[in-house]
Amino acid sequence: MAKALVIINCIILAIGNCGGPLIMRLYFNNGGKRIWFSTFLETAGFPVIFIPLLFSYIHRRKNNNGGENATSFFLIKPRLLGAAIFIGILSGFDNYLYAYGIAYLPVSTAALIIASQLACIAIFSFFMVKHKFTPFTINAVVLLTVGAAVLGMHTETDRPVHETHKQYVLGFLVTVAAAVVYAFILPLVELAYQKAKQPLSYTLVLEVQMILCFLASIVSLIGMSIAGDFKALPKEAKEFKLGEVLYYVVAVFSAIIWQGFFLGAIGLIFCTSSLVSGIMISVLLPITEVLAVIFYHEKFQAEKGLSLALSLWGFVSYFYGEIKSDNDKRRIQQEEKESQETELPSLSSRTISEC
């Protein structure tokens, strides 16, 4: 079941991680200009989480005999709720930074910056949740970071048309800030799980995700109100290059796809760790590069091919290390078990002889 959850979350994360930036860029490429509205779409799909939560509640009602978990629709307790509220507000501002960067950067440059957050995740994880490093983990982090750096070569030639140098530089710096903040958020979520003082389940993960996105959406709605987005959206929809209907279609699919990204990232933290979630995000970014080439006809330079190879190498290195570590633990446990079984008969014989 644990492996199945990991696979499911990886698939959900892959869809959101690859599709989110592309559909967001589609919005900006075709006349979209409202950054706070784009920020809102990153978390606006959270109501769909009510569906699995409802099924989970019905399942608990059927299988539990009048227990607290059976009668409560929500399992989250105040300690974890407080942490989720804080992280949700922080995520709202981080989402704005990311949307601002995507508005002014090509996908390749944005992918470069976001992939580089892996090094920050490793550092924050080490200090916040005491994540231990193995040679394979270090190798994976180095390979993925180098692969991300390779993507940065010749990115100036990919600068979007009709953008000033100042906008490009500002978008770059803001995206760096978004990467660092999200690198802090991932281990912060893992730390919140560790300090929750309540049994963790995937249902609880869904509740945390819903609260995070709800608070982030509130932050976005406040920003939209201040920026005047509510008045500007009808006009923007009519002037959208793909048509008014497709404007709202893009908005709906953007909300759904981005929800997959956040749900997959949070789910992987629950199943594994924040570092694994960060590595998975990084290894998927070169795939986003390939998709950008296909859909937006970006140039696939040799640097992008090298980055893809390095990222896949890092991905394989990490999981080989995890499999090896798991096998070593099982071998040690088996040896200890056999040792105990050998000692027990000899101890019994010694006791009998002494009697």
UniProtKB/TrEMBL annotation:
Topology versus the membrane: Multi-pass membrane protein
Cell location: Membrane
Keyword Transmembrane set for record: yes
Protein's UniProt keywords contain Transport: yes
UniProt signal peptide: none
Ranges of biased composition (kind: Basic and acidic residues): 331-340
Chief location: membrane
Entries under PANTHER family matching the protein: OS09G0467300 PROTEIN-RELATED (PTHR31376), PURINE PERMEASE 3 (PTHR31376:SF54)
Name under which the protein is recorded: Probable purine permease
Organism this protein belongs to: Camelina sativa
Gene name per UniProt: LOC104776877
